[in-house]
Structures are given as C-alpha cells and as structure tokens.
Amino acid sequence: MKSPSEIAARLAKQWQQTDRRVERLLSPESWPLVIPIGKPNGRQFADQTGQVQAHVQRWRQVTIGEVVFQDINFRAAAEPVSLPVQWVLHTPSEWAAATADGEVQQEFALLETLVGSVNQRYWEVLVRERALWRNKHVSEITAAATLADLLTPGMAEGRPLRLLNGLGVDTKFIERNVALLTRLLDERYDGMISQQGLSGFLDAPDDKDHWLLVVPLAQELLPFKRLRITARELANTCLPGSRVVVVENEQCEHLLPVMPGTVAILGAGLDVHWLAGEALNTKAVAYWGDMDTWGLLMLARARQALPTITPLIMSEAHFKAFCRDCAVPEPVHAELPTSGLNEREVAFFHFLKAQPQGRLEQEYLPAQDVQSELLGWLGRC
Asked: Distance between CA atoms of 328 and 315, rounded to whole angstroms?
C-alpha cells in the first residue's frame, strides 16, 4: 500500500527525469497517468486493521485527480471493503500539483506560461534544458524567444550588435542571454549557432576570440603538427608556405593529404573576417566546405573577404558524384547571400534547396577523392 505522500515523492522525482518530463508535458498521448496504489493482503487486513483504515482515510482526502476505489472481499470482513487502488492524473497540471513540491509547481507554472507565449519550435528545448531559464524572469525568457524569431544569419553585416535596430532589446540583454539565444536559434537552424557562435552567425564582431586550428600539410613548414590560433591573430600573421586551404569543419583533418608549401586552417565556419587581412594577399587560398546551403553561404562570406579565393569540391557536379551514399536532408536552409556567389553557385544553391536530401557534409566524402581534388588544385597553383 502506497500513501499519497510516497507517490507524491515519486512523482516529484519523475519531474527531474528529462525524457519523462518532455514526454508528459508535450505529448497528449501520455495522459491519463494511472498510478497503482497497491492493496493490503488478507493477513495485513486482519492484523493491521487500523493502519488500513488510516490508509483509506488518507486517500479519501486527496482532491487532485481521481482516486479509484474498488470493492474487495476479505475473509476477515463480513462484506466487501472499498479500498483505493489507483490514482489517475489527467493533465500535466495535476501531475505538478500531485508532487506537493513547491519547486516543481513553480517550474511547471513558468513552463505553462512559456508554452502559451513562445513559438512552438522552442517548447522542447525549454522543457528539456531548465538550466537555460532558471533564475530568469518569465518576461526575459519570452523576450529572448521573440528575439530568436527575429535574428537571421549575417543580419549584422559586420556591424557591432549594438547597432542593430528594431530588435526591441539592448546589447546587454543579448549578452545576458547568449546561452539561451544560442539554444533557441539552434532549434531554428539545426545546431548551426552552437557550432559557429552567436556573433559569427550574425556576422557581428565578437569581443571573444574564435580559435581556429592550423595544420601544416608538409613537415618542413612549422615545428608542430597542429596549433590553435585566434582569428584576430590569424588576420595579421604571415603563415609559412605559399598556399592556404581553408576548411569549414575540423573533423576533416584526417582527409587532408601531404601538400608541399601548404597550411590548412580548419574550423572557420561562418567566422571568415580574418581572410580580409593582408597576411593572405600573396598566397593562393582555397576554400572547402559542406555542400549545402550553409556551406555556400560560408563560401560567399569567404569570397566577400577574399575575392581571389578558389572553391574546391563545392559544385553541383561534385554533389551528384557523391550524393547517393552520403547525402542527408538539410533541416533548415540558409538564406541566399546577396553577393559572393557566381551564377553557377547560385544555381547550385537553388538546386540544393530543391533536393529532399540536399546536404553533403565534407567529412563523409571518400578520402581518395578529396585528396585528388586538393592535389589537383596544388598542381594548378
């Protein structure tokens, strides 16, 4: 036999379980919630009559949800005895109330307000990741969700965030809520913001340094196999060798061949402002990114910073050559950049948007083909 307080404690623990919380708050199929109370056996009924009576009385006092009673026959009783057998909760609000836990009830009330106030695409991340909004006022959370609906890739156009108009918040608001905004925007843009950083995604100067991975592709170039360097330093650092390969994702390091006189810079993502630095003016520079709309957006930004940059393995012909085994859907498309792509690349952008599986991530391409393309560019330089 479980008392109301014992089941309440169990319900409160279940609130702390992320997957169960998400399922119960966001899936109507989770309801009603039927919780067995348990019944005394014949010996308990005969030997502990007072305790059974107190148990029944406690359950008769429960006013949340529905307590189901059932007539049960016992040898020690002259007639059937009505006992509580199930506690039925019909809604998430009844679950929160049934926990008898003030913190759970406070969190539920806040989430209930948010679900009624913010875009549905943000519901799951807010329910799943409570650390994003704990210790924040509900008005600040809803304002962040409203702002996340307004922010788009590259909208800062190289300007500081404080110069963005029409957002209804100030720079301090954005600074206070970077983590929350990042996760909300990840829901819109398939994790892109966590990868690139909020400032990089918006194309705004970042006071915090973005670290890039520098890998020499020939032994004699540098006294190390890899080095982390900030984008700010990279813009003014003259690297050894005569060629540079800029790679969108760090995960592609294993695909790069030995290339005399060449340094690879990996993990740039949307942060390519450093390409405009004078340090690259005398070098041949190639850019290799994902074949999806985001990859083409990054190529456009790279070319805006360095017009002489050469794209590699980023054409419709390359996509068609490898898509059968490697292509996946692109959940959220980038906006077509207003400049930085030539006619063929614009056509490729539209081609990718029209594909049910329009994303081909560079790290999944065959190593032999990648190396052949890179060495082919090396021979043309």
From this structure: 17
How does pLDDT run across 344-372, given as a tens digit for each residue? 999 999 999 999 999 999 999 999 999 99
pLDDT digits (tens, 9 = 90+) for 281-312: 899 999 999 999 999 999 999 999 999 999 99
The C-alpha atoms of residue 105 and residue 12 are separated, in whole angstroms, by 10
pTM: 0.68
Tell me how far apart the alpha carbons of residues 247 and 252 are, in angstroms, rounded to a whole number: 8
Task: Mark whether 122 and 235 lie in a shared domain.
Answer: no
Cα distance from N-terminal residue to C-terminal residue, the chain: 81
Count of Cβ atoms closer than 10 Å to residue 213 Cβ: 16
Amino acid at 167: L
Q: Could you tell me the residue range of the domain that residue 50 belongs to?
A: 4-107
Residue 236 is classified by DSSP as T
Give the number of domains in the chain. 3
- How far apart CA 111 and CA 138 sit, in angstroms, is 9
Angle between helices 343-354 and 293-305 (to 10 degrees): 160
